[in-house]
Amino acid sequence: DTAVSQTPKYLVTQMGNDKSIKCEQNLGHDTMYWYKQDSKKFLKIMFSYNNKELIINETVPNRFSPKSPDKAHLNLHINSLELGDSAVYFCASSQPGPPFFGPGTRLTVL
Amino acid sequence: AQTVTQSQPEMSVQEAETVTLSCTYDTSESDYYLFWYKQPPSRQMILVIRQEAYKQQNATENRFSVNFQKAAKSFSLKISDSQLGDAAMYFCAYRSRRDDKIIFGKGTRLHILP
Question: Could you read off the pLDDT of A43-54 as tens digits, one per residue?
Answer without folding.
Answer: 999 999 988 888
